[in-house]
Design goal:
Strand content: 5-15%
Structural class: mainly alpha
Oligomer: single chain
Number of strands: 3
Shape: globular
Number of helices: 7
Largest sheet: 3 strands, antiparallel
Distance between the termini: 27 Å
Number of domains: 2
Strand order of the largest sheet: 2-1-3
Helix content: 40-55%
CATH class of the largest domain: Alpha Beta
Length: 198
């Protein structure tokens, strides 16, 4: 895996440069590095003549569990950072806007529901395209490798772990979520949605 640079250079409204630097340059980059380290160890094990797999404990079990946590840590953070740096304005004529209105009645109602989901999550709230049901769905994950649904692809990912907002807001998660929507790059979500629904 190769770390991705931040896709925006401007200061965000309500999310400090310090928070973004720590979040991206230390935490996210740490997930990339650990993902690579885990991949190397799994590569060695996969070539061994005798491979021990035990459901109670084995090195393979520990690495496979860590693999999903670290890899999802990379992917979710890339979706999170990718969705920031915008002006928070959604093109009302776009396919994503129309799909949000069709599903939730209005974009405002989607934001209200998504925000409430984020208030009750311990880690992530993710707007997804469910490729099996062919519809938008919102899922919460308390940790990177819990809460995901096979066949549901991220359109928007909101990190609600405390590290994403505590420097700026303390325990005021609600204000952080409001800042997320002010800085939302809806084009990122629109592009993801269109690539999934074509």
């Amino acid at each position: 895996m190769q770390e991705k640079p931040l896709p925006f250079s401007k200061d965000l409204d309500g999310i400090s440069k310090k928070t973004i630097e720590i979040h991206h340059d230390k935490l996210y980059v740490g997930y990339v590095n650990k993902s690579n380290e885990i991949a190397e160890k799994l590569s060695v094990i996969s070539k061994q003549e005798k491979i021990e797999g035990n459901a109670t404990y084995s090195e393979l079990r520990a690495l496979k569990d860590a693999e999903t946590f670290a890899n999802n840590g990379v992917y979710l953070h890339e979706d999170y950072f990718g969705s920031l740096g915008g002006d928070g304005k959604l093109d009302a004529t776009g396919t994503l806007s129309k799909a949000l209105v069709e599903k939730w009645g209005s974009v405002e109602q989607f934001v209200k529901y998504f925000s409430a989901c984020a208030m009750c999550s311990r880690g992530w709230t993710i707007l997804t395209w469910d490729v099996r049901q062919k519809k938008l769905r919102i899922f919460n994950g308390d940790v990177h490798n819990q809460g995901g649904v096979w066949g549901a692809l991220p359109v928007l990912a909101l990190d609600v772990y405390e590290h994403a907002y505590f420097i700026d807001y303390g325990s005021d998660r609600k204000s952080y979520i409001e800042s997320y929507f002010k800085n939302l790059n809806w084009k990122f979500a629109q592009d993801a949605f269109e690539s999934y629904t074509k």
